[in-house]
DNA sequence: ACCTAAACGAGACGGTACGTCGCGTCTTCGC
DNA sequence: GCGAAGACGCGACGTACCGTCTCGTTTAGGT
């Protein structure tokens, strides 16, 4: 992520820092997590953190990204809604898991720090959005999805409700939400046309 | 939110604090805004802030709530989608305005501070969600909305995409988004059934 | 010694800082004494030290000066050598006392820091040298001292040997040294002229 | 001062370190001179310094001692005061030269560090004091110096004034000081006995 | 119109964390 | 096996803010 000699870098320090940062952020949130605590818990000098990351948010970004890993990959079985169900279940699982509360803290930090926002978007969001759009495009070609919709709008419609619950906290993200959202989104809000 | 004698309270100090907090938060975000700056800019002793608010987030909550005011009230003309369009346009305007960037900062701060989250929810979100549900309920009774949907799900579906864009920043909130969301949400994603 | 509002200054903090600095410097020398230790031992925030003094040496200078106080004042009984004996005994006592080891540390620090050197000279040395010169001048007028000597040279001759022992440490300063120096200095090194 | 295999030692490294240390100490004093600067300036790994010296003071001690070299040797022409004049002129030259400011820094460092004090005394001071005492003893035997004086007292009387000026800095060491001190010290402070 | 108690502007205080510097050690190459 | 290079764990630096705590100084009701 930066400058000094990558080859001499201590793996032990790196993973201890990522683990400590995650733990502390889970316990007390990102704002109350300090570099000093991370260093102490990871048995590491503060300089070693600053040498490789510009901020605690950057540390957590790397840690969270490693955690999220392949858990949110997009399958393609040919059945769009089955695939969406699978993938969105992964997303809902992560967003509802206390293990990933640092993910929400990062989004919080991004509101006040353009650097964090940029890194978060580039490293975490955009690759997944891109994958989602491609899956949707294929579905469109196969007639499983209206041809006249903007795919990015669809992505926002599908995932917006999860982020809404996770960040605004009117109620918690659940796995049941996946069915609810998919059902609503497929059929739309209009009442069925009257028979006859 | 208080204790001392409200009647002796200085209006001048109160509004200077709210204004200073808003300005500073707009310029540098909530995280980089300090009590000392607010006090200095408002020509106020720090104690005067701490006397009436528990934290800078609380100050901003009050300031933001005053700003948002009636701008997001729900009309009821009898036409659900016209009313939704009106109200969501208000929301989109606020979420896309730099003047209300502190609103997003507050949501950010809420991720790490349960007190902020609670106050934000109670003072800002829940009243508006409640109003939205009531409007939707009336529409349901009038057959303008499927009868078999959970109204809170609908609220999340309608507003999630705006918060998604505002907080994740894949692209900015725009007024055009109101039409896009409403159109998608009314018809659903399924392709039209083939004729005959 | 500096800028903020002197009237609001906490006496408790000031004397606790001076005492802590003296203690720590006596135990471990000035170089190994840290601002952090001083603050901790004095139950004081570091900022409170930096608010009133520019460096740990400045703290010690004030502390030492307060300690030395009137102990090195010059008497004038009319008998030069009796007065010198009295005053030099005071000096020898201080230079040989572990309580004033910070005095030597200060001289040490002055070798590398012009600010310390200047303050030390102005606050501690010059007033005493001035008093000594005046006493010597009066003695010169009364014929108790050669008229053709530079008084500053005399001061250096009288006190140099004490600082030499204290700083170079070939052997410790003692009270007996007062007699030795005075005796040597009065008579000179030349052997007595042969009787004849 | 060492341990590893002296024979494999790099002369290039050794002299580069000594030169760099001297230069840096002359520019900024010993306290502000760091091992890292010395290593960088000498194009040397830090370990190479720590391998051969225990501290930066030890490096400078060796460097200074090499500089002082034979410049302060004691001659013996048979004329005590001529020889003193010669030798003290050497001392005054060194003490007044900016090239040897590290010498004073060392004395400063010795005030807070017993190891430095010990090494300084053993390597630099004691041999020269010993030489001085021997020269003075011979002079005593030859009747050029009072028989009833302690020779170490005499050494302190002769050199104290130079160290006083050098370390306390009331005024700078000069070559003229040699004459002044010798003159005073030979004749003493007492006024001449009245004739008759 | 005066009195008095409160809220006020100001800012020093005891602290915690910041991001940086330098320490002395350790590790990895190349000669 | 010494030397150049530099990452490491660590501790202190001097600064920025925290939230609390006096200080006078307004300022408003109550008399």
Structure write-up:
4 copies of one chain form a homotetramer. The first copy, chain A, has 196 residues and is mostly helical. The first copy, chain A, has 2 domains: 7-65, Homeodomain-like (Arc Repressor Mutant, subunit A); 67-187, Tetracycline Repressor, domain 2 (Orthogonal Bundle). Chain A is built from 9 helices and no strands. Chain A has helices spanning 11-32, 35-41, 46-52, 56-68, 80-96, 101-110, 114-141, 151-168, 176-187. In chain A, helix 6 (101-110) crosses helix 7. The N and C termini of chain A lie far apart (65 Å). The model of chain A has no long low-confidence stretch (mean pLDDT 93). Chains A and B meet through helix 1, helix 6, helix 7, helix 8 and helix 9 of A and helix 1, helix 6, helix 7, helix 8 and helix 9 of B. The first copy, chain A, binds a DNA duplex (31 and 31 nucleotides) through helix 2 and helix 3.
